[in-house]
Design brief:
By secondary structure, the chain is mostly beta strands. The chain has one domain: Beta Barrel (Elongation Factor Tu (Ef-tu), domain 3), CATH 2.40.30. The strands form two sheets. The protein has a six-stranded antiparallel sheet with strand order 5-6-7-4-1-8. The radius of gyration is 25 Å and the shape is elongated. The mean pLDDT is about 85.
Length: about 140
């Protein structure tokens, strides 16, 4: 992800604050929207309102809710992928812990994975299938000493 951090499409930071029980009650039905605050070492070039994803947590979606003046403290709201409604408790580890270092990007992590070639198309230098041995008449002529 380093190349995307250089282009401003991603950032890495440590979780310095979290609210795993936050509910968004603005709609008809409350929605669980935990919040995180990350401290980045480098200034973040993404903006408030950008939808971001974490490659380490590919099912979760988040939105940037705040960026401080020096662009190193970033607030996020997890907007999806927690796997539970607002009434059920979240499973352990669903919301990142304090001190956890995470990378978020505007790119879709599932689209970043290139599919591997079929086994028969993989070269032998990369673990492809060896050519099967087929005995022939020359094997019988081989001298053994």
């Amino acid at each position: 992800m380093a190349e995307y951090e250089l282009t401003g499409e991603a950032f890495t930071g440590a979780v310095v604050a979290r609210d795993p029980d936050r509910l968004d009650t603005t709609g008809k039905t409350p929605k669980r929207r935990p919040t995180l605050t990350l401290r980045a070492e480098e200034p973040v070039r993404l903006a408030v309102g950008d939808a971001v994803r974490c490659p380490a947590r590919p099912t979760q979606k988040a939105e940037i809710t705040s960026v401080d003046a020096d662009r190193r403290l970033v607030g996020l709201a997890i907007t999806g992928g927690l796997g539970r409604g607002y009434k059920k408790p979240l499973p352990e580890g669903a919301v990142p812990d304090l001190g956890e270092e995470l990378t978020y990007t505007v790119l879709d992590p599932s689209g970043m994975l290139t599919p591997l070639p079929a086994e028969e198309d993989t070269p032998w230098t990369h673990g492809g299938p060896p050519i099967p041995y087929e005995p022939d008449d020359k094997d019988a002529e081989e001298l053994w000493e």
